[in-house]
Design brief:
This protein is an alpha+beta fold and 466 residues long. It has 18 helices and 16 strands. The strands form three sheets. It has an eight-stranded mixed sheet with strand order 1-5-6-11-10-9-7-8. The protein has a five-stranded mixed sheet with strand order 13-12-14-15-16, with helices on both faces. Strands 2-4-3 form a three-stranded antiparallel sheet. The N and C termini lie far apart (69 Å).
Amino acid sequence: MTINKPGIPSGTRDFGPVEVAKRNYIIEAIRKVYTLYGYQPIETPAMENLSTLTGKYGLEGDKLLFKILNSGDFLKDADAEILQEKSAQKLLPVIAEKGLRYDLTVPFARYVVMNKHLITFPFKRYQIQSVWRADRPQKGRYREFYQCDADVIGSKSLVLDAELVQIIQDVFSQLNVSVTIRLNNRKILDGISEYIGETEKNLFLTVAIDKLDKIGIEGVEKELSANGFNAAQIEKIISVIAIDGTTAEKISALEKIFTGEKGKEGLKELKELFSYIPPTKNSAIQIQFDLTLARGLSYYTGTIYEVIANDVKMGSILGGGRYDDLTGIFGLPDTSGVGISFGLDRIYDVLNELNLFPASALQGPDVLLIPMEDSAIKIAMQYAMELHANNIAAELYPETANKLGKKFKYAEAKNITYALLVGEKEIKENVVACKNLITGEQENYSIAQFIRLLQNGVADFIDLSE
């Protein structure tokens, strides 16, 4: 009998206890900040109807949707002519009605529309769940990954856009990561289309600029040319995105060349946004107006965000933007929203590479109870219950036959600080032998004394015999 070697799909990963502990450290930092700013948690299903997802992410995004085959005989309703033609485009709507969510924003918009009578607007929500994209796996890019989203919907106020910048600063300050927060406005990109006299192709323009980091300026020029932009238009586009200087200098330069309404409106919004953002108190965090920032998702209409780590070569570790009418697609028009999404997996890679995870993020239970004989198991279990009742993380080593050294190694592997040895001698004296596995010190305490020491934050052993 041949046994197949197990594996997982390319672009996905298993996470062991250490990895999960590190990921939880990041999640809790993000969750804490979201909660401080009044955002509330929701969750949505892993799969959505394809009709919900398709057409919301632009031409490139739609190609990356994972489709789910219909249950049972998914070919039974397929027309024989379509099957014979072997056209995936025609066959897909018949055999697949659902797909894995590509992001958390579109499902959120769908949720808002379905629950509009239960929601008080403006509605602030955060959502931390997996998403899936049929992308080519590479460093920092996975097919299954977590997003940590915050969105507020039901207000056009740019105060909320600025608040999200503050949230970004607070999270990365807590994580001790040096980052650059890049800001732009999609209306400014529309202004470039107005400037070159080609407003019908603004989506192609946005997609091309969005690829600048991946394909370089020559690649952008080739892509623009392939999509019908002439040499004069391409030259103008490149000259605009090459404008350098401070935020004020860039805006001033654009004000001189933009004549269309969209571009002017984008510049006005950008100036207002920067007027609301207080000076950063953390020198490791930079905020800049970046003309090359495009964000390829087609539903963005205003402010767009992107964050890159300054000390690690990695793609963006946060993205987001304002969308004026995403809910309108589902029947709730004129409901503007704005949101950001922290990329948990890339942030994890950044912290790992820079060795920024604190030891506390990997701390296991505080205590390992070790019964020395079978007769000590029940009293050790009782001690464990007392520790748990006092909110002290503790576990019981289940084997009495193993050597003591093996038990200590088990505790050290789980970053446990204290081993409590319980044998017949200790039971008679109503104590436990407490060994600090970091310092090697050992003292005897009653379980009540040991609990008080931990609760009082005593790091070193104290001789209580006198």
